[in-house]
Amino acid sequence: MIKIKRILEYLVVCGYPRSLRRIIALNKGVTFNSRNVSIGRCSRLVGNILVGDNCSFGKNNKIQARGKLMIGDNVKIGDNNKILAQHRLNPIFHSCILDNTYIGSFNLIDLTGKLHIGRGCFLTNEIRIYTHKHEIPPRSQPIRSGKIIPQEVFIGNDVFIGARAIILGGVNIGEGAVIAANSVVTRNVEEYSFVAGIPAVKIGERAE
User: pTM for the complete prediction?
Assistant: First the structure.
């Protein structure tokens, strides 16, 4: 019986109709504010996720919340993204992706700690956002003994993040900032500034 249930679930998630994928998500704890939500082939939404109006999820996404994940209205998420906690720690943190934000494809967005992605943001492809860090123990202890420490990442409204950028834990990215492709952001970014490099440094500002 369990095997048949899993086969049926696989067929529903990977095949058609899309409305049945929504039913599976509902059974996995997801709440939809409207029926106007598109879930692509082989995408799975699991956990305490609140999805707003007019959202779309491409194919092969894995979105899994331990705490509460709020996804606002008009959020578009591309293909092959992983939005989930990389480490199962306590306490459990809540995160949000606010209205009119676009997330491209092949991104890894960590929900181990707390994540805030503001309104109207544009995240391109192959981005890595980490909400935790690894403690480095002294030489007398093995490197694997270091603890996983959850952190918060705050991304303000109207932020652009270029391809293959890496955002490390504990960072605050101000409203309207632009993160260049291949940058590694290790410290706070001022509002409306351009940053680039490894580690990322300010190279300019957006015109008024």
Answer: 0.87
Give the H/E segment covering residue 63: strand 62-71
* Ranges of each domain in the chain: 2-205
Confidence of residue 146 (pLDDT cuts 50, 70, 90): confident
From the list 94, 116, 132, 134, the catalytic residue is 134
Q: In the chain, count H helices and then E strands.
A: 2, 23
How far apart CA 197 and CA 116 sit, in angstroms, is 23
Beta strands 201-205 and 193-196, pairing class: antiparallel
At 119-138, the pLDDT tens digits run: 999 999 999 999 999 988 89
Quick one: fold of 2-205? UDP N-Acetylglucosamine Acyltransferase; domain 1 (2.160.10)
What does the alpha-carbon distance between residue 106 and residue 126 come to, in Å, rounded to a whole number? 5
The 10 Å Cβ neighbour count of residue 179 is 26
SS3 55: strand
Per the annotation, the verdict on 134 as an active-site residue is yes
